Sequence to fold (84 residues):
Amino acid sequence: MSTQDKCSVCGSNKLMHDLTIVDHGHMDAKHDLSVHIKTSDRLIFNTFKKSKLNACICGSCGSVNLSVNNPQELWQAYLKHKSL
Fold:
């Protein structure tokens, strides 16, 4: 939905693009939600490919679509992870 002009659920054009999803942790510390894919097979000090989650919300029906900025990098990391 982040690149569309209309909501895929209700057809409205009231879309809020590129919104950040925040988690409130200890002492109300704020952290952006993200996707992490493990790219090494070590017991400690593993490496990960990461991407922040972005949201697009429809102002009419409330439908939420999530996206990442680097889908090709995550796909390659996923393939590497599957082969570990």
